[in-house]
Design goal:
The chain has 69 residues and is mostly helical. Helices cover 58% and strands 0% of the residues. It has one domain: Non-ribosomal Peptide Synthetase Peptidyl Carrier Protein, Chain A, CATH 1.10.1200. It is built from 4 helices and no strands. The chain starts with a helix and ends with a helix. The relative contact order is 0.22.
Length: 69
């Protein structure tokens, strides 16, 4: 999970992320971030998601669970 969090930190351009962090509160949480997460999940975790799947996540923890499960 730490590797995934590092990738999310890069995408969201922040120093650290925590499971409780609300996605919509990040300055860089936008459609480009969502596309970047979809691409990263495909390349790194061989998972395929739609933008709607990512948008359903409310927190970093939700997003990590979606990608890792």
């Amino acid at each position: 999970m730490e590797e995934l969090k590092k990738k999310l930190e890069d995408i969201l351009d922040v120093e650290t992320v925590n499971d409780e962090d609300v996605l919509e509160e990040f300055d860089y949480w936008d459609s480009l971030a969502i596309l970047s997460i979809i691409s990263m999940a495909s390349e790194s975790y061989k998972k395929t998601f739609k933008a709607a799947d990512i948008r359903e996540c409310k927190t970093i923890g939700d997003l990590c669970k979606l990608i890792l499960n």
